[in-house]
């Protein structure tokens, strides 16, 4: 069924149950509690409220109003509507309103510059935009350069003159379901790739993919109506939203948290009695480090109901999960592998019953098939490294308006070639070795940075590490480790080199750099940025080295 029918069914069956809770730790009045109805009547500035709620009926009616508004102003099935909002209680009703009237929802990364926003608007042929207060400056820069965008809807107070006030307009439209028939084969959304290799690609998905993501998430993590899911990552990304789809399918409550500090996360888990939390590697590290330093005491929080912690979006160091289980021994754990091209979570997942295999990304997810192939797309032998390919209902339809890029990753039989290098062990568990583009070729040897990073992260002083290839006139490339130390930790290059004696000689990094490891909002290390910074330095050093002596 189309993903919108799940929302409509929840509204009919559980109209008064709370569907969404927004927690804003930076609110001026901590612990103030307000319902969505009170919010609309009394105050329209979400930043002033610590907690807001939305029932399933209010959620569905709000989405219907959005759908009817868009239809009334001239948009139709197949129109494309952008969303540029920070996480908040308005986000999902707007998203579902766009889907309900047959348009395509196009979420945008909140870190995009004005030029990147303009690029994405043009690439996806966006016809209308919803945007929040944080983006007034960026939208103002480009509002005269995006003529195809017929309406700019501002979500917040003090609407700028170049936009229309969404909050003022939407209340005038009926909350009845729009007259629109949808099928699973209809186009539903355009998501953008993470853009870690340049400007992002536009990924087109059907309703079938969204609905399958909901089934995958519930199959993997067993959500019931009694669960409470804490959602922290940005909703513009497939991962966060598709994990929330498990709550949608089970009609269970979700908490949208505007903040990522360890105290903020644990307070939300405690106050809202969250049972499932999806975290990114940096947040796990921050929580563990805060407890180790004594900045947080777990006894200050009610955490006994917390049953599952799962991670996605990037390789997970086994040492990190070992530390987590030492602190939370009763937690089930799962890791989820997915791409925006394969609708986010779980085309491969570890499985809560397979904690003994931590370090693997796991086995094929619910409804998915997996292969590991060579350069000719032939299956490699078990234990050999090859490219991971996936097949299932969640594979993208195409890269929008880019048949060449589509053909490079999607074959005629529907297999998606991920660009990730992987291997499968004798038990059938898949281990992510690295991105194909990140493999370092040093002196003819293939070095897989993730393997080196996992080793170095086990050092007690290391908070995060990224290994990149730097140009070398003799070896072609050498491995360099960019290391971010834990707060207050002391460590020298000599100590890291001594620690790395535990690696085979050819895998040991030849250069150690102590610096911050940059990650994007979904937790992925921004290696292109690191290469831009440090490869340039290496090229200059090589040029100086080979200059003729005077």
Features:
Luciferase, domain 3, 550 residues, 10-stranded mixed β-sheet, GMP Synthetase, Chain A, domain 3, globular, Rossmann fold, 3 domains, 5-stranded parallel β-sheet, alpha/beta, 16 helices
Q: What this model shows, in words?
A:
The structure is a single chain. With 550 residues, the chain is of the alpha/beta class. It folds into 3 domains: 3-259, Rossmann fold, CATH 3.40.50.12780; 308-435, Luciferase, domain 3 (Roll), CATH 2.30.38.10; 439-546, GMP Synthetase, Chain A, domain 3 (2-Layer Sandwich). 31% of the residues lie in helices and 24% in strands. The chain contains 16 helices and 27 strands. The strands form 6 sheets. It has a 10-stranded mixed β-sheet, sandwiched between helices. A 5-stranded parallel β-sheet has the order 5-4-6-7-8. Residues 28-48 and 538-550 have low confidence and may be disordered.
Fold blueprint:
Layout: H1 3-13, E1 18-23, E2 33-35, H2 36-42, E3 51-55, H3 56-72, E4 80-84, H4 91-100, E5 104-107, H5 114-123, E6 128-131, H6 136-142, E7 151-154, E8 164-165, H7 166-170, E9 187-192, E10 202-206, H8 207-221, E11 228-231, H9 238-250, E12 253-257, H10 262-272, E13 276-279, H11 281-293, E14 308-312, H12 318-327, E15 332-337, E16 348-349, E17 363-364, E18 369-373, E19 386-391, E20 398-399, H13 403-409, E21 416-424, E22 430-435, E23 440-442, E24 445-447, H14 449-457, E25 462-472, E26 476-485, H15 493-499, E27 511-514, H16 527-546
Parallel strand pairs: 1-12, 2-3, 4-5, 4-6, 6-7, 7-8, 11-12, 11-13, 13-14, 14-15, 26-27
Antiparallel strand pairs: 1-3, 9-10, 10-20, 15-16, 16-17, 18-19, 19-21, 21-22, 23-24, 25-26
Helix pairs in contact: 1-3, 3-4, 5-6, 8-9, 11-12
